[in-house]
């Protein structure tokens, strides 16, 4: 590959900023509703459109699969109950799950805010029931067009949830649910809270005004969009830092809230023509010295208004609690607190002290979501409806069709009771009424409400088809009764009953299939145990354990019990675990939170979280991941992250976000689904008119019009019209994308590959260039000092040599960089200290120049006469920039060390990194550090090249080291960019994009985050920093296995290919079937009976969901698998499996003939 023409920018590049006026602030409520009855995209659209023009509604988000609607609204203008009423008015069931009212975020300022606008926006999540396709989501979304107070709206068909950011003064959560129900869908409020959940109360402390706000941006499609958004913040006063990701559809802004509140950020983005939803706002400091968090509790005990006020006052007086608000309507307690001061358990204990009981709401919501994902209620309802309709449809079918045709001798239906009235017709009418108006009642309610709001759903098609058959049959009976010759009328009651039977069967099968699509997410959500065992007093337990260990070491009789450490054990709900708790794990226990092992040794099964097949050994100091399974050891670990902060919770959130984010191709499908129903109605009407005309005009019309059994020309035309209306179904079109995304992302999570949404998936399939960071990505990032070279002045005595190491080690004490950790470890070794020991002394004025080195003032405590030293550690350029004269011979000596290292261990060594040291402005020596290339890195690069993807390395390390690593893994030296800063990494990515490449950036550190955010697809290793994973679009949970990079690309391609196949099938299904239903082939004797059309309609959506479920069989292709694991993983798809069987058979045959053995054939399997 020709070397790219890339210019690395200098360190002085900067962007100007100016000022912009500060906005007003409004207070929003977020109401989450569960919506029942949604079946397709038209249903979700119907729910959304129910909120159109409703005062007080800010935004509405409806999810079909999650059956949730989230409404942001003004609680003073519209309540949560009113939102539910609106949804019910649309023909759906709605249940308010929660409504969160945030406390005021900013002090009033008459120059900036009106008195009525001193509160914040709310984000309401609503579960929506009844959506089946894109037309449903369009119907729901349409309900919130032009609704006052709606700021942003997003909806997911598969997760059946809608997220709405709204002004609670104009639109309450209850009103949002009512709007969705008014569109014909069930709506249930899942969650309703401040759009800035993470923001603490306002403070007069200036340090508390700096916050980092994360904003979800809707509508960005290319780099020009991100530039437009970024351009809106140029010269805006209060912006300290701005990052934006096109594929993650997020912007992260660090800003001064006194100059730029979070609400204004969203307004600026919306003014640029994009939708904006504030996800979180976290302050760097707060009134209580730490970041705040908002928790919700379900309070039991029926508190009255007096008790509620007393509880709020009591909680607000507790240190660490910023605010507390109890809603008597929902019994929900919302508490904003400082987790580092008081945890959830402390809050629950404080509530119980007031004579009430409280449970963390997250647990209830998770249980409700698990039930929703499994589609338990919907499956039972549609199974019951199908059985009931089938019990009526079978007799009607036999009386109308089977008995007259096969057993005419016992055709009691032909008995005439009155002139023109026959027994069979009356029996069929009696059996059809319960089906048409009992089981079909839900279709009438939902369909009528969707028609009323101008957004017809699939239920309208069902209503029209069955009603035409039912009322036409009644009309035929009346005509036969009133007018001679009173012959038996041609009724089609069987069409009505069988159509509803097929529709209910289709809904039953569809919901069962939908439940399977979310099984991966359900398994992830179920990994954490419900209870955990902790020490009631971890400090006492620690002392008891130390006493036991000391007694065991000295040979004295042990006094504490090893099982209990002479300390009391306590079993608590997992959600009440707090940082610092010591948890007891027994063999086979699930690990309830993230933490560090403090006692014992064991093996842990991490396969469900990271995809790692083999158990991982854990010893003192090892990190535990919540949700994994302990092996045979009995161990204790200290909790470091609990609740929403655990790695498992973050994975679940990433998967949920991925499954509720619509890809651009899905938005197109949903838009088309919105026009689908009106188009079909028009085609059905035209079919009836055209054939009515042709059947009377043509001298020789098709044979079916003249057959006696057909019932006459009008009957044939009615059947053709019904067939058209019933056959076409928008559900398949709307389910094509979200089902594939849900199954694919779930399977990816089980394999340690997390993708942040459909847009990221779609772009990942177009990657042409992968850019990899070196340290921590290609290499392990665990460096060690291979050689040192000190000036004679520091080697003339052992004391001077130890002082040098003490000074250097102190300077690196606070460093988290792999180089810094390696230098500190070497210093401890040279000084004879263990890993956990601390160097005596102090460090001040520490400054780190990213990608260059560090500058610190240290004071080692080695003698009573303590001396301060100015220390510089870094590359040659860094020292020379700080006016340190580094001898040329020292640089040459370091290069010689590199040559020797690279030539001696080319296949395993990552080359060497030279660190030069200056003390008090004078060069004193340098260290040679080496790293190791990850096992399988070369194979991963080779697979990327096989997939026609170009590769490059960017690193802040010196070029000789980077070239050595590139040569070892198979990357051309022309594609190595060494000695670059984080800003320059970002510029390299940008310039590759300018050359037409679709760039995927792979990194793990803070210094990689600008490039990760800039790349078309950012890929972060899970061992890296939270900043890197936040900036990335794809997160790999197994950082040591670089083969996950091509595996992620292959998975994305498989998912996107399945989406295209689903969409093609949905379109082809309708394109082929509609002409048959419209009677185009009647002259050749072919047409589609209404009952067959109903069965075909049921099959269309089920077939698409089943097609997506085939993604569950995805595995890595054999060329991505280590040869020793060939028997574990095979290629994806039926075709590959058939090929494998054929190869095995051919292997046996050739072996019988004395040629190639079967084992060798397996080696060729790809």
TrEMBL record:
PROSITE patterns: ATPASE_E1_E2, HMA_2. Its main location: membrane. GO terms for molecular function: ATP binding; ATP hydrolysis activity; copper ion binding; P-type divalent copper transporter activity; P-type monovalent copper transporter activity. It is a multi-pass membrane protein. It comes from the Eukaryota. Residues 29-95, 122-188, 211-277, 292-359 form the HMA domain. One of its GO terms (biological process) is copper ion homeostasis. Residues 1-21, 546-565 are annotated as: Disordered. Gene3D superfamilies: 3.30.70.100, Calcium-transporting ATPase, cytoplasmic domain N, Calcium-transporting ATPase, cytoplasmic transduction domain A, HAD superfamily/HAD-like. GO terms for cellular component: endomembrane system; membrane. The chain crosses the membrane at residues 385-405, 417-439, 460-483, 489-509, 672-694, 714-736, 1063-1086, 1092-1111. It is found in: Endomembrane system; Membrane. It is an enzyme of class 7 (translocase). Keywords: ATP-binding, Copper, Copper transport, Ion transport, Magnesium, Membrane, Metal-binding, Nucleotide-binding, Repeat, Translocase, Transmembrane, Transmembrane helix, Transport. Pfam families: E1-E2_ATPase, HMA, Hydrolase. InterPro entries: ATPase_P-typ_cyto_dom_N, ATPase_P-typ_P_site, ATPase_P-typ_TM_dom_sf, ATPase_P-typ_transduc_dom_A_sf, ATPase_P-type_domA, HAD-like_sf, HAD_sf, HMA_Cu_ion-bd. Its EC number is 7.2.2.8. Belongs to the cation transport ATPase (P-type) (TC 3.A.3) family. Type IB subfamily. This is P-type Cu(+) transporter. The lineage of its organism: Eukaryota, Fungi, Dikarya, Ascomycota, Pezizomycotina.
């Amino acid at each position: 590959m020709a070397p790219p023409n890339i210019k690395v920018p200098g360190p002085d590049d900067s962007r100007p900023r100016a000022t912009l006026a500060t906005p007003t602030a409004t207070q929003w409520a977020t109401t989450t509703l569960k919506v029942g009855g949604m079946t397709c995209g038209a249903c979700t659209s119907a729910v959304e459109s129910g909120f159109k023009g409703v005062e007080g509604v800010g935004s509405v988000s409806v999810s079909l699969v999650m059956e949730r609607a989230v409404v942001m609204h003004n609680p003073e203008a519209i309540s949560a109950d009113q939102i539910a009423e609106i949804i019910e008015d649309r023909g759906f069931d709605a249940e308010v799950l929660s409504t969160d009212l945030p406390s005021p975020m900013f002090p009033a300022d008459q120059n900036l805010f009106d008195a009525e606008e001193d509160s914040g926006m709310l984000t309401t999540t609503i579960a929506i029931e009844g959506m089946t396709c894109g037309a449903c989501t369009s119907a729901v979304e349409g309900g919130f067009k032009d609704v006052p107070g709606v700021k942003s709206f997003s909806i997911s068909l598969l997760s059946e949830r809608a997220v709405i950011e709204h002004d609670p003064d104009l639109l309450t959560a209850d009103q949002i649910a009512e709007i969705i129900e008014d569109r014909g869908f069930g709506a249930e409020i899942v969650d309703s809270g401040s759009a800035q959940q993470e923001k603490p109360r306002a403070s007069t402390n200036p340090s508390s005004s700096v916050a980092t706000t994360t904003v979800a941006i809707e509508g960005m499609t290319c780099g020009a969009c991100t530039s437009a958004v970024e351009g809106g913040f140029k010269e805006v006063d209060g912006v300290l830092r701005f990052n934006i990701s096109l594929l993650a559809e997020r912007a992260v802004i660090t800003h001064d809230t006194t100059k730029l509140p979070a609400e204004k950020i969203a307004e600026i983005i919306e003014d640029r023509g994009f939708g904006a939803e504030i996800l979180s706002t976290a302050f760097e400091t707060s009134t209580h010295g730490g970041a705040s968090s908002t928790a919700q509790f379900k309070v039991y005990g029926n508190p009255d208004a007096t008790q509620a006020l007393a509880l709020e006052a009591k909680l607000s007086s507790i240190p660490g609690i910023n605010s507390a608000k109890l809603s008597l309507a929902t019994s929900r307690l919302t508490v904003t607190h400082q987790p580092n001061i008081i945890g959830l358990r402390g809050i629950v204990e404080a509530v119980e002290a007031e004579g009430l009981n409280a449970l963390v709401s997250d647990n209830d919501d998770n249980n409700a979501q698990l039930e929703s994902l499994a589609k338990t209620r919907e499956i039972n309802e549609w199974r019951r409806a199908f059985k009931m309709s089938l019990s009526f449809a079978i007799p009607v079918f036999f009386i109308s069709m089977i008995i007259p045709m096969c057993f005419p001798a016992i055709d009691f239906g032909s008995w005439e009771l009155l002139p023109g009235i026959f027994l069979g017709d009356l029996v069929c009418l009696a059996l059809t009424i319960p089906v048409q108006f009992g089981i079909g009642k839900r279709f009438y309610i939902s369909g009528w409400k969707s028609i009323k709001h101008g957004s017809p759903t699939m239920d309208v098609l069902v209503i029209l088809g069955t009603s035409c058959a039912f009322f036409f049959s009644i009309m035929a009976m009346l005509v036969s009764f009133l007018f001679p010759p009173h012959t038996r009328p041609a009724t089609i009651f069987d069409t009505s009953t069988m159509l509803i039977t097929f529709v209910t069967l289709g809904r039953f099968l569809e919901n069962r299939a939908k439940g399977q699509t979310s099984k991966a997410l359900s398994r992830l959500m179920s990994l954490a145990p419900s209870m955990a065992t902790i020490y009631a007093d971890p400090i006492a337990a620690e002392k008891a354990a130390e006493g036991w260990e000391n007694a065991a070491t000295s040979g004295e009789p042990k006094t504490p019990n090893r099982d209990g450490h002479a300390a009391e054990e306590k079993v608590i709900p997992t959600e009440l675990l707090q940082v610092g708790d010591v948890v007891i794990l027994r063999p086979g226990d699930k690990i309830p939170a993230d933490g560090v092992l403090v006692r014992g040794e064991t093996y842990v099964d991490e396969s469900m979280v990271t995809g790692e097949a083999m158990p991982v050994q854990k010893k003192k100091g090892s990190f535990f991941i919540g949700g994994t399974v302990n092996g045979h050891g009995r161990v204790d670990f200290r909790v470091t992250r609990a609740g929403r902060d655990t790695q498992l919770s973050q994975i679940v959130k990433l998967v949920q976000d991925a499954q509720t984010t619509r890809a651009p191709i899905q938005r197109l499908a949903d838009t088309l689904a919105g026009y689908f129903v009106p188009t079909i109605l028009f085609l059905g009407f035209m079919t009836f008119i055209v054939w009515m005309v042709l059947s009377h005009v043509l001298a020789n019309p098709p044979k079916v019009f003249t057959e006696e059994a057909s019932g006459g020309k009008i009957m044939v035309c009615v059947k053709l019209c019904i067939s058209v209306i019933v056959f076409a179904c928008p559900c398949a079109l709307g389910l094509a994308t979200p089902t594939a995304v849900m199954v694919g992302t779930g399977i990816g999570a089980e394999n340690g590959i997390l993708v942040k949404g459909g847009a990221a998936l779609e772009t990942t399939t177009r990657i042409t260039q992968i850019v990899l960071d070196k340290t921590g990505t290609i290499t392990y990032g665990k460096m060690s000092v291979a050689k040192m070279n000190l000036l004679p002045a520091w080697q003339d005595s052992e004391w001077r040599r130890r002082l040098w190491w003490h000074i250097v080690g102190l300077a690196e004490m606070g460093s988290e960089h792999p180089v810094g950790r390696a230098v500190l470890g070497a210093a401890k070794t040279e000084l004879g200290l263990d890993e956990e020991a601390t160097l005596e002394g102090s460090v001040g004025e520490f400054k780190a120049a990213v990608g260059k080195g560090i500058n610190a003032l240290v004071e080692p405590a080695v003698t009573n006469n303590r001396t301060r030293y100015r220390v510089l550690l870094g590359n040659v350029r860094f020292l020379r920039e700080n006016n340190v004269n580094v001898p040329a011979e020292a640089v040459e000596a370091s290069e010689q060390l590199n040559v020797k290292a690279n030539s001696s261990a080319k296949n395993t060594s990552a080359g060497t990194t030279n660190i030069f040291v200056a003390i008090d402005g004078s060069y004193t020596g340098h260290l040679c550090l080496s790293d190791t290339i990850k096992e399988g890195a070369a194979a991963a690069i080779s697979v990327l090249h096989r997939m026609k993807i170009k590769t490059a390395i960017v690193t802040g390390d010196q070029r000789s080291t980077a070239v050595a690593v590139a040569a070892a893994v198979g990357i051309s030296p022309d594609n190595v960019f060494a000695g670059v800063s984080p800003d320059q990494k970002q510029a390299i990515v940008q310039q590759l994009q300018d050359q037409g490449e679709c760039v995927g950036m792979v990194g793990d550190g803070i210094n990689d985050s600008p490039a990760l955010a800039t790349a078309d697809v950012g890929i972060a290793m899970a061992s890296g920093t939270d900043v890197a994973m936040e900036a990335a679009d794809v997160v790999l949970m197994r950082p040591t296995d670089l083969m996950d990079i091509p595996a992620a690309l292959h998975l994305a391609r498989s998912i996107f290919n399945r989406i295209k196949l689903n969409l093609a099938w949905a379109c082809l299904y309708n394109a082929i079937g509609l002409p048959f239903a419209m009677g185009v082939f009647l002259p050749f004797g072919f047409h589609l009976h209404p009952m067959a059309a109903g069965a075909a309609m049921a099959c269309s959506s089920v077939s698409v969901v089943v097609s997506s479920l085939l993604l569950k069989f995805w595995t890595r292709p054999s060329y991505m698998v280590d040869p020793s694991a060939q028997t574990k993983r095979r290629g994806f798809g039926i075709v590959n499996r058939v090929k494998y069987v054929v190869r095995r058979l051919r292997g046996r045959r050739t072996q019988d003939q004395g040629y190639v053995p079967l084992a060798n054939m397996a080696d060729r399997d790809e």
